[in-house]
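Researcher: Here's a chain I'd like modeled. Treat it as a single chain, no partners, no ligands.
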Amino acid sequence: MIKVLIVEDHPIVREGVAAVLQRERDIEVAGVAGTIEDGLRTAASAHPDVVLLDLKLPDADRNNGVARFVAAGRRVIVFTAYETDEDVFGAIKDGARGYLLKGSPAADIATAIRQVHAGESYLSPRIAAKLVKDASAPRGRSSRLSARERGVLRLVAAGLSNRQIAGTLSISERTVKFHVTALFNKLGADNRAQAVALAAERGLL
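Model: Modeled as a single isolated chain. Structure tokens:
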């Protein structure tokens, strides 16, 4: 059974998500909270496997919710209506394992929870499509990365595995590995984290 904590300040949304998850045989709602602080206290006693966390909570201005839950050893899926690059990459940089948009189908919410619990990452399809579209936009002649390499880079930065990238871009996993290797060579990176850091410094994300 996957234990989930829902941290969301709007009761209607919170109750709606809880009702959806309670219909899943392998998912249990271990608790709900309306603020980061309440969520952390609940997590300490309920020991959830996954935290479904809204970004814009009442105490978010003085708390980094994603970072604090990650520091407490929790796997976090951001659950939000916001989809700017700043929000997406900020959450992923802070350690979020998933990014789920409010209004997502019930099946997507359950899938995200299962994948993150299994140690994988999850992006709402609309977010993944947006990252690929943004990556394909012209970036100027200073970039030596092809449009496809930029697309792979954005998904690597979002925390997706080679298999997930292959599925998102409808290419083979072998092709993804080829592009990742090319990225390492062009950026002078030894691993994925270093590649993302170097790309960010050079304005390629």
